[in-house]
Every structure is written in C-alpha cells, then in structure tokens.
Amino acid sequence: MEKVNVSFIEPVGEVNLRSSKWNLESGLRKFYQVIESFFIKKGYLLLLVGFLLGRALILAKLTPFCLPFFASVYIIKRDRAPLALIGLIVGAATLSIANATFTFIVTIFFLVIFRISQKWLTNELRALPFYVGIILGIGKLGEALILSQQLTMYDLMMIGVQASLAFILTLIFLQSIPLLTLNKRRQLLKTEEIVCLIIMLASIMTGTIGWKIYDLSLEHIMSRYLVLVFSFIAGATVGSTVGVVTGLIFSLASVSSFSHMSLLAFSGVLGGLLKEGKKIGVSIGLFIATLLIGMYGEGGGSLLLTVLETTAAVFLFLLTPQTFTSRLAKYIPGTPEYTAEQQKYMRKMRDVTAQRVSQFSNVFHALSKSFTQMEELPDEEKDHREMDLFMSNVTEKTCQTCFKKEQCWAKNFNTTYAYMEEIIHEMDQNDGNVSPKLAREWDKLCTRSKKVYKTIGQELTFFQANQKLKKQVQESRRLVADQLLGVSEVMENFAKEIQRERENHHKQEEQIMEALQGFGIHIEQVEIYSLDQGNVDIEMSIPFCNGYGECEKLIAPCVSDILGETIVVNKEECATYPNGFCHVTFRSSKAFTVETGVAHAAKDGGLVSGDSFSTIELGLGKYAIAISDGMGNGERAHYESKETLQLLQKILQSGIEEKVAIKSINSILSLRTTDEIFSTLDLAMIDLKNASAKFLKIGSTPSFIKRGKKIIKIQASNLPMGILQELEVDVVSEQLKAGDLLVMMSDGVFEGPKHVENSDLWMKRKLLELETDDPQAIADLILEEVIRSKADIIDDDMTVTVAKIKHNTPKWASIPVSKLKRQA
C-alpha cells in the first residue's frame, strides 16, 4: 500500500503552476493569432465592417456610407472588395430590401463608370472622391424620380448633402481602411489619420443603433468603450476628441443620442486626466462623468440604465489585453510607447552609424598592421643571405671565366669564401681599402685580385644605395603605420561617443530652473547636455543682464551648490538690446589653471621673427604650450615655424596622440620641400585635472621648472624636424605642482649670453635670483637679462614663455540652494 500511495503522491507533487500559466498565456496568444489571421489577413473584418456600415444611417434616412466604403476597398484592396460588397448588401437588407437593391445597383454603376474612365485617369486616388460623390448623387436623383415622380427643393437639398457626405467619407476611408487591411504596421500615424480612424470607427458603430441586450443599448456601450481605450492610451486630448467626434456622429445618426455626446466628451477628458491611475483610474473617470451628466439631464430610471451601460463598457475595457493597448499606443503620437518606438529607431540608426565608423576604424587598423608586419628574418640569417647574394654577384663577374674556378670554389670553398667575406667587410668599413696583410694573402690565392677589388667596390656602391633605399622605405612604412593607427584610434573613440546614449535631463532642467527662480533669478530656458562629474555642460538663456555679471556672480555659484562641484561660465553672449536674451554656457571648472607670459624679440630688432609660439587649450582638459624655431631668420624661418605650430594645433585638436602628431608633421616637413629648411619644436602638454605634464622636445633647448628654491631641468636629445624621415620622439613626463613655474625658451635665449661657459648654471642662477612669480614679468626679465649680457645686441631670434601652475580657486563662493540628485 505504501508503494501505491507513493506512486500516487509523486505526480501530484510535480504539478508545475508556472507551466500551466505559460500554457494559458500560450493558448491566449494562439487564440489572438487565429482571430487576427481570420479577420485581418483573410479580410473578414471588411465583411463585418461592411455589414455595420450598410446599416448605418444619418438623420434616420440617409445612407452615405456604402458606396464610399466599397470604392475605397476596391482601390486599396481589390481582392477583398467582394467581401465588402456582400457585407454592405446584407447590412442594407436589414433596413429594407429597397435599400439593399439600391446599394447593389449604385455599386455596379460605379464599377462600370470607373472601369470605362480608368483608361484616361492619371491619378485614381485623387479622382475617386469626385466619382463617388457624383455617382451617388445621380443614383439618389434617379431613385427620387422613380419613387415620387417629382422633385421638391427638400429632395434636391438632401441629395446634395448625401453626395457631399459621400465625397468626404471617401477621403476619410482612403486614410483609415489601410489600418484595417494591411498586416504590416506603419511606424507613423499622422494626426489626420487618427481623426479619420476615429470617424470611421464611430461610423461603424452607428450600425449598431437599435441593438439592445437586456435593455442596454449596444451603441452606448461600444462608444464608451472606444472613449475608454483612447483615453487610457493617449490621455485627455485624444480622449476628449474621440468623445466629441463619436458623440457628434451618433447625434447625426439619431437625434435621441445628442445628449450622449456631452457624456462621451466629458468622460474622455476625465478618463485622460486620471490616466495615471491605469485602467481603474480611467474607469472611475467614466463613472464620474456618467453620474454627473446623468443626474443633470435625465431621471432616476434612465440614470440606472446609463450606469449599467457604463458598467458593461468598463467590464469590456478591463478585459481588453494589455498587449492590444500597448500595440495600438505605438502608432499614436504623444504616447510614451510611440516615443519609445521612435527612440528605438533612432538608437538603431545610431548603432548602424557607429558600426560603420567602427568598421572604418578596423580597416585603418588592419592597414596599419599590414604595414608593420614586414617580412623580417633573424639578423644572422638576414646577414648571411645578403652576403651570399653579394658574393654571387661578385663571383659572376670575376670567377666565372677564371681557369682556377674549380680549384678555388670546389676544392678550397671555405678558404676562398672566408677571404672574400673578409675583403668585403674591410672595403665596406675602410672606404674601399684593404689592409696590406690581407692583400698579400689574397694575391697569393687569386690571379685576378685587382679585378675582384674593383668589382667589390662597384657592388658595394650599389649595395649601400640599396640598403639606404630599403631603410627609407621601412621608415616610411612605419610612419604610415603610425598615422593609420592614430586615425583608427580617433575613429574608434568617435564610434564609442556615438554609441553613448544621451541622457534625458528634462527633470534636472526643471529642478535647476525652479531652484534658481525660487532664489529670485529669472531663467528663460535651461538645456543640459552632460551632468558627468568633471564634465558638466549646461546652456541657459536669461533676460538682458545689462552687463552686471549676473551669470558669473549668481547663477554659476547657485548651480555649483546644486551639482556639488565648481561650475564656471565658459562662454557668454550678452544681448545687444534690452528686450533680448543672453546665452550662457556653463562648464565644470578644472582642478588647475595655467597663467602664461611671453616675451620675444627678432634678430637685430626686426619685425619678423623666425620663432613662433602658441598656447593651445584643447577640448580634452589639456593645455599645450609650444615654441618652434625655424632654421635661420626672417620670413622663411617664420613661415616654417608658424606652419609647424598650425599643423600641430590642428592635429592635436583632432584627438590624435602627441607622438603620432609630431611624426606626421615631421614627415610633411621632410617631404614637402627639397630645400634644407628645418625647424625645432618644444611642446609641453599639461593635464589640467592633475597637473601632470609631458614634454616633447625636437631639436629644442632644455626647459626649466622652478619649484621654490629648486630648479628642475627638462632635456631630451632629438634632431630638428625635417632632417630625418624617421623621427624618434622621446617623451619626458613630470608631475607639476601648484606654484610651479615652467620656463621654455628658444636657442637664442638659452645660448645667447656671451662669455658664459655653462648655460645651464647661468640660467638656473638667474631663475633662483628672481623675486617675482608673475609669468609675464619673469619672461620680460629673462629676455632683458640675455640682451644686456650681449651688450644690447640681438644676434638671433629670441622667445621665452613662462607658465605658472595654480589651483583653480573659484572667484565666487557657491550660494546654497536646494540640492539636485544626478542621474546615474
């Protein structure tokens, strides 16, 4: 018995509730798919819609819906037109046989006329509303003549109204029927299409007028259900629009429904306002509207009936699956689902763009790799191979026709090879000369020794030229590889920047605006581009400040307190007239600042100096100081040095690394001209976040850092730019501190003092003797001291730049206001 009990208990214990839930969801999903396939793909929805529109009336006697609906289906989905016609005729037959007959005849008449005239129609869609209006008007005119034998002014007016309605309804159905027939959902619905869809749905529901379930009017239930759905999806604006349009069409169909329009409009507004309460909130809005309008307009019995109809509509609304409302919300502008769909599309486009940029980056990286992966043998194997090739060329011209060839290269190969190898090495190292001892020994072995010397000398000339050419090619390939790698890194960084999602800072913008306005500062507009720590970027528009410095003195300190870091004015464009607006950019303040001073003089007191200097503030939180000295003096030297710095600035601002930038400039200068025009470069890159500095010196003089009573010398040994195609750049790193003075100078200053044996000691002594820390004053004093030491003669171009590293102390203290939490 125990075994039996166990066998029965075990399966019960294995019942998986999640599995049953999944099966239920799967069953519902399959049911929805079957319904969608039956109604949408197979087109039976058009049969149902045709049936309801065939029953629809305007002013209790006009039927303008049939022909516009059939004509629109015929143009848009011709293979489903028979289903629409069957639905229209069956729906019209529920009103009267005469109505069904008229619908059939006027449809056939339309088909005949339209098919005949189709040959010369250039735009069928544009001509269709006119055809429908005219044909329906002619049909109604013929019907009136057959039935009454005479026409009154009232009959003519009703025929004109019906033809006009047919014209308008054709335009509406052409916009809205594709939403019912096409399985492929469009990503964008225009406002006109939404209104047309609402009008068509309301027109369809007029076909249910007169249908009742337990005395509950079906058109009232369905119209309130429609308002509930759109209020829940799109809010008060669309909800009230749906209520007004639906109520208006119902009131045209039946005058008794006129009071129902105010109920639908009011419930659309209330339901939309209570949208945050989800379905329950929207349903409560409909109940409140029902009670208020019902108590105001009608008695107690009707009020109970209206409440029951509202309850039925709410019950249907609560049964509506979330997937249906979410799917519909994607196509209505203004809804969060629609915005998310649009953002999804934008993210897709962004990712595609970033992927293409990344692919280009990979291409450049692969090209760089292909240039660096040159075929390189081990040194010993490479030398042995080159020696064999060289010796084969020599022996081909000397030993090939010698009578002692067999004895030298067959019997005494090792001895001959060793002597030849030694002769080649000596001639290569001694400008074509061979030591007397080796010459005597070789003369004993070889009968053509002089011819061998001459041939080896000739081959050495070609060999050396070939080696030089190979080296230049290798250097050029290495340079191109570095440049391609630099471009690849820039493009890869750009791809990463593209893929960074820009955060939505609407909430923070409102909080900043409220905090500043609560403090008494009027702000017109706030736009936040970045709230990253140390990289804040905010733009504001404020009213005319009259030049009082309101942004620097009030707004920046307030924002500093709000964000918890020092914010400063980066750029300010004041309004030119009192009623205008000032546009201000606020950025994060850097931890350090650099104050610079420059002094320079041209040779013999001229106006044009061969030296050029530049202070470049890069957008990456770095500060660059550069001095370039062109070879010689005058305009040509000035042009070379200026061109060097301009190239450097543009390449550095593109984001390429400093070493690659300098190598690129060197290759440009060396390839641009055959003249021996060279230039030096002294570059200091200072990181304003932590005051670390990199020094790159190309043929330049030393730089000095003064730290209190201590002098630090920065020196590197590199040839000037443009001399060698392959430039080895030595990078010297140094950690600067607040209060440090960085002194950079050209050779005219460093080597300028006369009768000074040690320029280093002289410059260090002069820097220690300084009693000021003002950069401009120091630059002026150094230049003046050098000129005085030369008896006031300026025999070379001179340039001195002095930079002082300082902690970035804000000018204005932060002003306490309410704190703002950053988005993670």
TrEMBL record:
<feature type="transmembrane region" description="Helical">
    <location>
        <begin position="194"/>
        <end position="214"/>
    </location>
</feature>
<keyword id="KW-0812">Transmembrane</keyword>
<feature type="transmembrane region" description="Helical">
    <location>
        <begin position="83"/>
        <end position="116"/>
    </location>
</feature>
<dbReference type="GO" id="GO:0004722">
    <property type="term" value="F:protein serine/threonine phosphatase activity"/>
</dbReference>
<dbReference type="InterPro" id="IPR052016">
    <property type="entry name" value="Bact_Sigma-Reg"/>
</dbReference>
<feature type="transmembrane region" description="Helical">
    <location>
        <begin position="128"/>
        <end position="147"/>
    </location>
</feature>
<keyword id="KW-1133">Transmembrane helix</keyword>
<dbReference type="InterPro" id="IPR001932">
    <property type="entry name" value="PPM-type_phosphatase-like_dom"/>
</dbReference>
<keyword id="KW-0378">Hydrolase</keyword>
<feature type="transmembrane region" description="Helical">
    <location>
        <begin position="226"/>
        <end position="259"/>
    </location>
</feature>
<dbReference type="InterPro" id="IPR014221">
    <property type="entry name" value="SpoII_E"/>
</dbReference>
<feature type="transmembrane region" description="Helical">
    <location>
        <begin position="303"/>
        <end position="320"/>
    </location>
</feature>
<dbReference type="InterPro" id="IPR045768">
    <property type="entry name" value="SpoIIE_N"/>
</dbReference>
<dbReference type="Pfam" id="PF19732">
    <property type="entry name" value="SpoIIE_N"/>
</dbReference>
<feature type="transmembrane region" description="Helical">
    <location>
        <begin position="44"/>
        <end position="71"/>
    </location>
</feature>
<dbReference type="InterPro" id="IPR036457">
    <property type="entry name" value="PPM-type-like_dom_sf"/>
</dbReference>
<feature type="domain" description="PPM-type phosphatase">
    <location>
        <begin position="595"/>
        <end position="805"/>
    </location>
</feature>
<feature type="transmembrane region" description="Helical">
    <location>
        <begin position="159"/>
        <end position="182"/>
    </location>
</feature>
<protein>
    <submittedName>
        <fullName>Stage II sporulation protein E</fullName>
        <ecNumber>3.1.3.16</ecNumber>
    </submittedName>
</protein>
<dbReference type="Pfam" id="PF07228">
    <property type="entry name" value="SpoIIE"/>
</dbReference>
<keyword id="KW-0472">Membrane</keyword>
<feature type="transmembrane region" description="Helical">
    <location>
        <begin position="280"/>
        <end position="297"/>
    </location>
</feature>
